[in-house]
Request: fold
Amino acid sequence: MFYDTGSHTFRGALAKTSGVQKTAKGAPAYSRFINRKLGRYLAAAAYVLRMTPNQVTLVSAMFSYGAIAVIATVRPSGLMAAIVTIALVLGYALDSADGQLARLRGGGNVAGEWLDHMVDCAKISALHLAILVSFYRFFTIARPESFFLAGAFELVAVVFFFGTILTDQLRRAQGPAGKPAASADHAAPLLRSLLVLPTDYGLMCLVFATMAFPKVFMALYGLLFAGTFIFVVAVLGKWYREISAFGRGPHD
Reply:
């Protein structure tokens, strides 16, 4: 049903993925230019292997949660940092691939979307908790206040994730679906993708490559937190004004 003879090859499936991409508007640079491209190749491979989107989601979770477990339990080293970074990058690419695969197969379903969001929410929460555990077990922290960094980052990250999902759902409830996602790719401004880069989960994945150098890692982690915090504070106001306008009638 889902596999026509013209696309049941890796090359054919890869060609079809170009027409099922999400809009690039608002997407941070790593997610837009690197992660989605990696996801295309993984989605095409999964399509040829006749995998379902939910199966890809679960494989993504295996890589991501495996890396998170290593962060919390293994002393940072060059090898550990490489393993964690590669696993997180693959997990994130597969997180993009499951949605692309769903659209490639003709559309996903509500249960698949729910599973994807639940896996992502748990991943974001667990990642910062694992960092906090790693700080406590393996890092030499001169100031105890530094432990609050991971906790504060988790709070901001979860609020940002929930706000993004909730706002998107409320937008969908307000009217018909918009134009096809791929139509907006070329119009999306590059500058915006660069400005929101600190909020990019993919950039966070790459920062773990420095875990063998605690001071460098903590400095970069702190910069990502600052950038994410500033962006979230700004975007919450924008979202609230947008959502408030949904309920306005002609006399408001």
Q: What stands out?
A: Residues 10-246 form a domain with the Four Helix Bundle (Hemerythrin (Met), subunit A) fold (CATH 1.20.120.1760). Residues 1-6, 177-184 have pLDDT under 50 and may be disordered. The chain has nine helices and no strands. The chain has one domain: 10-246.
